[in-house]
UniProtKB/TrEMBL annotation:
<dbReference type="InterPro" id="IPR010468">
    <property type="entry name" value="HSL_N"/>
</dbReference>
<dbReference type="Pfam" id="PF07859">
    <property type="entry name" value="Abhydrolase_3"/>
</dbReference>
<feature type="compositionally biased region" description="Basic and acidic residues">
    <location>
        <begin position="583"/>
        <end position="595"/>
    </location>
</feature>
<feature type="domain" description="Alpha/beta hydrolase fold-3">
    <location>
        <begin position="746"/>
        <end position="807"/>
    </location>
</feature>
<dbReference type="GO" id="GO:0004771">
    <property type="term" value="F:sterol ester esterase activity"/>
</dbReference>
<dbReference type="InterPro" id="IPR033140">
    <property type="entry name" value="Lipase_GDXG_put_SER_AS"/>
</dbReference>
<feature type="region of interest" description="Disordered">
    <location>
        <begin position="523"/>
        <end position="622"/>
    </location>
</feature>
<feature type="domain" description="Alpha/beta hydrolase fold-3">
    <location>
        <begin position="379"/>
        <end position="520"/>
    </location>
</feature>
<feature type="compositionally biased region" description="Polar residues">
    <location>
        <begin position="596"/>
        <end position="614"/>
    </location>
</feature>
<feature type="active site">
    <location>
        <position position="456"/>
    </location>
</feature>
<dbReference type="GO" id="GO:0004806">
    <property type="term" value="F:triacylglycerol lipase activity"/>
</dbReference>
<feature type="compositionally biased region" description="Polar residues">
    <location>
        <begin position="537"/>
        <end position="563"/>
    </location>
</feature>
<feature type="domain" description="Hormone-sensitive lipase N-terminal">
    <location>
        <begin position="64"/>
        <end position="363"/>
    </location>
</feature>
<dbReference type="Pfam" id="PF06350">
    <property type="entry name" value="HSL_N"/>
</dbReference>
<dbReference type="GO" id="GO:0008203">
    <property type="term" value="P:cholesterol metabolic process"/>
</dbReference>
<dbReference type="GO" id="GO:0019433">
    <property type="term" value="P:triglyceride catabolic process"/>
</dbReference>
<dbReference type="InterPro" id="IPR013094">
    <property type="entry name" value="AB_hydrolase_3"/>
</dbReference>
Length: 844
């Protein structure tokens, strides 16, 4: 009996040992498959090589499509006998994905073959057709990785069918939506001859979208968000999308920063909910929401990032140009008077940011330097869709540019739409350039070389300003650098414009509302006022080579607008009566003594010191920063983000000293807790400030908790608020064409692409840098091709895998930082600081 018992025990222990081995084997197999999956590289498809063909005429990507199809068939065969719900959904998902490959391949193959015809040249491959081919290829790569992940781990003990069901179904929806986009591309190919990315005849976007089914935008912002970008950008883009969805909760539910944290977590764990919210925001949110969200980059916390992570600069100042007439000399030695802008918002002081890595002789407010003025100066305009941001939010890369170029940078803080639509921003940029021509010493330069630079909306403004400069006969810049520029401000159907249907940075509705706010603000307004405004428009020099037509000219503000002064535009002909009338409009701090010059009247200030007639803070920006300013940051800060105590001296003398010192940033340590030498009073002040900040924060928390747990007065929302809130939470599928119900005239000051050829021939050397996944890519390519045809010196480069606005991520993403360095190299060539290669084939 004992032997029999021992035999049974041995068999039992052997069985247990075998079961342990099987369990361990399965675990090791699952772990090894997971490691293999983690090691699987998943870069986006390269648009530069997506149209390459092998010797037999078959593109190398064909094997990738076939591999995905085979993998889907293999997985479908495996899950077909599985009678569970998730098993059958996996089977159907793989079969659907395989069917979509059959449908998409001939469409993408046709676009792949014709795409090279639309490049700028063979050395610079890039256009919207290439971009869409690379997006489809990236989708196939993403799906292939996922399918192989399933086939490798499907027999593992811990394989989660429910997770992969959602992933595979998302890939199927993604490929189906891209197939719909490819149908639209076939239509666009028929609307324009080879080489033309814009239709040669008038075609409306509604006509384009009527050719095929409605595009499912939700799949682009869910589980597959950012699949087309480089891996280092995907986490950032996902974080931006989560912030956008969470911020909408606070914005439209009248909450605050704390409430968005409470409710925004759901968008982190639920990709489908996030996708629905983002698409509905794009379709329903107002332009004020766009402004408010983008102004998050202007918050007190974000303002401290450049001083902590960017290059150290010696000068970082705000200079306010007073609204006074300027006298400038043309190339023909004729003096013309340029009036300050008055359209839309009346007379206002214009702020410019001066950034320099070195203090120089004569530079504004710098009397201790012996370094001679620089030969070059960079005239910069920031991006932000014409409606948001400032030179401060672009300081992250401007500091680096100033250090590497070693020239002063003059960045313009132009007025923003919709409060100040076209042409206000352009008038201010032109006015700032005229001021620069008279004040080289103040900026710290001899003015020997002037290079224009701008990104996104700022690139449009510097190009349009160049058109204006050439029209008025002033000295033109010596070079121009444009980054991802919108040069045709209208939604002309083009392949690259369709990319905004899946863009996390520039969603479709955001782009359309920005264009409408800047270019067509009065489309539903008083037509009589608009007509009268157009009739009053005149050019500074009516006999110049080219001027805008009467129907496409600048609009002047109507007298019915409250608080707006009616006066001549800076683009109008000046008469003595105009000057007298302009002087009569000045009052208080706006009126200057006749003995003051433009230079002496220009006030230097820290960025938080409001003087003169600076416009009041925008409501959207106020909404974003209200919490921080009210409860935590109740202090002024200098341009490095360091606090300046408001309770210094009441006589104002101390504030003047602080403001002046805060503008000079080199070799200055940030404010810290005082040492014993600094005295107990200062330590007590800082302790008091910390205590006040903590008390304010706790008060905010208590108020929020009281709101949640207690009762509050019921405020009846408006019908518009109810409609927006309903749309944000609804699963709706609307055609994007509903956003296109407006048109913009072909004004060369609004869209430099439509400038007269005679003016474009006079353009300085131009360097353009853009990305394959930019909705403005076709604008850059067509503008470069137009300049090349006219014989101009022009070059264009298209980067892989980066989004629109990548310069703002130069501190976080290696590839974006390398793109910023490339910008510096191209600007150096324009400055002729380094020996640039000889120009060949109209390229730099």
């Amino acid at each position: 009996m004992s032997n029999l018992s021992s035999i049974k025990d041995d068999k039992k222990s052997g069985l247990l040992h075998t079961m342990r081995l099987k369990f361990i084997t399965r675990g090791v197999r699952f772990a090894s498959s997971t490691l293999k999956i983690m090691e699987f590289s998943d870069p986006p498809a390269s648009a530069s090589y997506c149209c390459a063909e092998s010797n037999d005429g078959i593109p190398p990507t064909f094997a990738m499509y076939e591999a995905l199809k085979d993998s889907c068939q293999n997985n479908a065969t495996f899950f077909k006998p599985d009678d569970t719900e998730n098993g059958q959904r996996l089977y159907q998902g793989f079969m659907t994905l395989s069917d979509h490959i059959e449908t998409v391949w001939p469409l993408v193959d046709h676009v792949r073959k014709v795409a090279p015809q639309y490049d700028f040249d063979t050395k610079s491959p890039g256009n919207g057709y290439r971009s869409f081919v690379s997006v489809v290829d990236s989708c196939v790569l993403y799906s292939l990785k996922l399918s192989r992940q399933v086939s490798t781990g499907r027999e593992a003990l811990l394989f989660r069918k429910s997770h992969f069901v959602k992933e595979i179904e998302s890939c199927g929806q993604l490929l189906a939506s891209l197939g719909t986009c490819l149908h639209h591309l076939q239509t666009l190919l028929g609307w324009a001859p080879p080489g033309e990315l814009f239709p040669t005849e008038h075609h409306t976007p509604e006509e384009l979208f009527s050719q095929a089914d409605t595009i499912n935008q939700y799949c682009f912002y869910g589980r597959c968000l950012g699949f087309q970008f480089i891996p280092s950008m995907r986490g950032i883009l996902k974080g931006i999308s989560i912030c956008m969805a969470g911020f909408s909760e606070a914005y439209y539910c009248h909450g605050n920063v704390i409430s968005s944290v409470w409710t925004g977590g759901q968008y982190l764990i639920n990709p489908e909910l996030r996708a629905r919210r983002i698409v509905n925001i794009s379709q329903s949110a107002s332009i004020e929401f766009c402004k408010a969200f983008w102004f998050l980059a202007e918050s007190e916390i974000m303002k401290r990032v450049p001083s902590l992570m960017s290059s150290t600069v010696a000068v970082n100042k705000i200079i306010t140009i007073p609204p006074e007439p300027l006298t400038v000399t043309t190339l023909e030695d004729k003096e013309i008077t340029v009036l300050p802008p008055t359209v839309h918002i009346g007379l206002q002081g214009l702020n410019i940011r001066l950034i320099s890595v070195n203090k120089r002789v004569g530079m504004a407010g710098e009397s201790s330097s012996s370094l001679p003025p620089s030969d070059g100066v960079l005239f910069h305009c920031h991006g932000g869709g014409f409606v948001a941001q400032s030179s401060k939010s672009h300081e992250t890369y401007l500091r680096d540019w100033a250090a590497k170029l070693n020239v002063p940078i003059m960045s313009i803080d132009y007025s923003l739409a919709p409060q100040a639509p076209f042409p206000r921003a352009l008038e201010e940029v032109y006015y700032a350039y005229c001021w620069l021509l008279n004040n080289f010493k103040t900026v710290g330069t001899t003015g020997k070389r002037i290079v224009f630079a701008g990104d996104s909306a700022g690139a449009n403004l510097v190009a349009a300003c160049t058109v204006k400069i050439l029209s008025t006969g002033l000295r033109k810049p010596d070079g121009m650098f444009l980054a991802y520029a919108p040069l045709n401000v209208n939604f002309v159907p083009s392949p690259a414009r369709l990319l905004c249907l899946m863009d996390p940075i520039l969603p479709f509705g955001f782009m359309m509302r920005c264009l409408k706010a800047y270019a067509s603000p009065n489309m539903s307004g008083n037509s009589k006022d608009s007509k009268d405004d157009k009739e009053n428009n005149q050019s500074v020099l009516p006999n110049t080579t080219s001027t805008p037509s009467d129907t496409n000219g600048f609009l002047k503000v109507s007298q019915s607008q409250e608080g707006i002064s009616e006066g001549p535009s800076s683009f109008e002909e000046v008469s003595p009566s105009d000057l007298a009338e302009l002087q009569a409009h000045k009052s208080g701090s706006e009126r200057r003594k006749s003995s003051d010059t433009t230079i002496s009247a220009a006030s230097l200030q820290s960025e938080h010191t409001v003087t003169g007639t600076t416009p009041p803070e925008d409501k959207s920006q106020q909404y974003v920063t209200d919490f921080l300013e009210r409860y935590v940051l109740d202090s002024d800060t200098d341009s490095e983000g360091r606090k300046l105590n408001r309770a210094a001296n009441n006589d104002g003398s101390q504030r003047e000293i602080e403001s002046e010192n805060s503008s000079t940033l080199v070799a200055e340590k940030p404010l810290t807790v005082p040492t014993e030498e600094e005295g107990p009073d200062n330590r007590m002040k800082i302790k008091t400030r910390i205590s006040e900040a903590a008390t304010g924060f706790m008060g905010a928390m208590q108020t929020r908790l009281a709101y949640i747990t207690g009762s509050s007065a019921i405020v009846r929302p408006t019908q518009e608020d109810l409609a927006v809130r309903t749309n944000l939470d609804a699963l709706i599928a609307r055609s994007p064409s509903e956003e296109f119900i407006f048109s913009v005239p072909r004004d060369p000051y609004l869209s430099p692409y439509w400038a007269d050829d005679e003016l474009l021939k006079m353009f300085p050397p131009v360097r353009i840098l853009t990305v394959h996944l930019d909705p403005c890519l076709d604008d850059c390519v067509m503008f470069a091709k137009k300049l090349k045809t006219l014989g101009n010196v022009v070059g264009i480069e298209v980067l892989e895998g980066l989004p629109h606005g990548f310069l703002n991520f130069s501190l976080m993403v290696k590839e974006a930082n390398e793109g910023s360095k490339l910008c510096v190299e191209r600007m150096k060539q324009l400055f002729d600081l380094d020996a640039a290669p000889a120009a060949a084939d109209n390229q730099l």
